[in-house]
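Hi again,

Forgot to attach this to my earlier email, sorry! This is the prediction with LNRAV4D5 bound. I've pasted everything inline since the attachment limit keeps bouncing my files.
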Amino acid sequence: MTHKNSPEKVHALVWEDGCLRMLDQRLLPAEEVWLECTDVESVVEGIRGMAVRGAPAIGIAAAYGVALAALEVSHDPDWRDQIAAHVERLAQSRPTAVNLFWALERMRQSLAGCNSLGIARSVLTAEAVAIHQEDAEANQVMGRLARDLMLENASGPFAILTHCNTGALATGGYGTALGAIRSVWDAGFLSRVYADETRPWLQGARLTAWELLREGLPVVLNCDGAAAQILRGGEVKWVIVGADRITANGDVANKIGTYGLAILARHHGVGVMVVAPSSTVDMSLPTGASIPIEQRDGCEVKSIQGKTIAPAGVEAFNPVFDVTPAGLIDVIVTERGVVRRPDMSGMARLFNDQASGSVPGQASQ
Ligand SMILES: CSC[C@H]1O[C@H](OP(=O)(O)O)[C@H](O)[C@@H]1O
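Structure tokens for the complex follow:
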């Protein structure tokens, strides 16, 4: 077991000599265990089983999966088809985060330019590393943009509430919503950050609290049901979340519970900010109604880390994302810029190059 996480820097994924090391987030915060992925199937299982999760991190892992595919296939005449079949397997791992399909399309385009397996092996590895690095850099840019926007009207430190985990564990590093929170903290304007526990998978309790506590940020863990009372108190100025897919009109798919949080925030006059890189934008879908929402096994609702908390026979409803309409979002921050009061024209201004539908969004049937 190799520890790659230092107190100041957390990684979800580490690529080393043809091996993708994946921090198994299912075991956090109790244990830091690294899975050694040397074939595509282990990456597919890691994404599907949520050893790695978080929209950008899923895309990055899938990109490395394609690089592993090139290393895995043999020098047969149909090597290109074999890689394409592995890409298809990766595309089936989880349906909602468009970052997965965006990354796979970028790897497909890199593969198309390779005329030998030897070249494909080095080109695809370099492309996956680039996707990883670009995401980490985008998060730094978004952190600055979000911080500057929040400080526009700030007379002093303020509190933020966040949902799920959008930190280094969900991205190429630093985080999206958590990147914005880290940037406000570094500027001396963060009084407290409330982290929703985020039932049923507990990304907030197990991951966000872990990330922020190890860096000394003033994180307070709360039950999802306490968010209304917290927002009513007036201390929180912003609800900041990530995204798994943003459509052409600014609708946002994100962790289940985000929609309700946005309604609460609007009711209490609290700003709603979505922070997400352009790899999360899917201009091929006109509204959030077309976003495929992942339904996971009801056992995730009826148990916690293997301990049953509900009668075995009860039916469970477990959609793990919901869609927040653009009208409930005050601002979307991307590395390309900021969209205030998001709508079709605001999104097109920044993402017109994708408006042609070139983004491979797997729309629901
Ligand atoms: C940086 S965006 C992370 C995004 O992904 C999470 O979902 P999951 O943990 O199921 O992959 C959640 O929607 C976060 O907002």
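The first strand starts at residue 13 and ends at 16. The radius of gyration is 20 Å.

That should be everything now.

G.
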